[in-house]
Write a structure and sequence with these properties.
Number of strands: 7
Helix content: 25-40%
Radius of gyration: 16 Å
Distance between the termini: 18 Å
Oligomer: single chain
CATH class: Mainly Alpha
Strand order of the largest sheet: 6-5-4-7
Number of domains: 1
Shape: globular
Strand content: 15-25%
Structural class: alpha+beta
Number of helices: 5
Low-confidence stretches: 125-140
CATH architecture: Orthogonal Bundle
Length: about 140
């Protein structure tokens, strides 16, 4: 983990935590190839430093780390990357800047739920439903 001194959105001096791809891999159990693929496809990109050519490191913020952890857990529960991307895009249209790190997600059976302001909501659109057959389960996606 790196610490970088910089200026935050309000113009104040701030110290920023930065996580390398290796550190993110260790904390999230995602492979380096997954991180690279998601970056290349503009799904979850490193917000501090994007890879630009050989030798340049990807640096992820803590918010990026949380988003990657949640996306990885949803994948482990059998939710397709396509569905996660659609949910992320839909929630961004509803004014969430980083929905995977701002909301809690739940999977029960074939339904994906999210918690907003203390209320658990089911997805009402077909983009939320996982069409692949899945065994019955109920799981929460949070950082462990």
């Amino acid at each position: 983990m790196f610490y970088h001194s910089g200026v935050d959105e309000s113009g104040e001096a701030a110290e920023i935590q930065a996580f390398t791809a290796e550190r993110v891999r260790a904390l999230t159990s995602l492979s380096l190839r997954q991180l690279q693929y998601w970056d290349e496809r503009s799904f979850i990109r490193p917000s501090l430093t994007a890879r630009q050519g050989r030798g340049r490191k990807r640096l992820y913020s803590f918010r990026d780390l949380v988003s990657l952890k949640v996306a990885g857990q949803l994948r482990t529960l059998g939710i397709s990357l396509q569905q996660i991307r659609k949910v992320d895009a839909h929630l961004r249209q509803l004014d969430y800047r980083n929905p995977l790190s701002e909301l809690r997600f739940f999977v029960s059976g074939m339904q994906l739920y999210f918690e907003e302001s203390g209320t658990v909501r089911a997805g009402r659109s077909s983009i939320w439903r996982n069409r692949a057959p899945m065994r019955a389960r109920s799981s929460r996606c949070t950082l462990t």
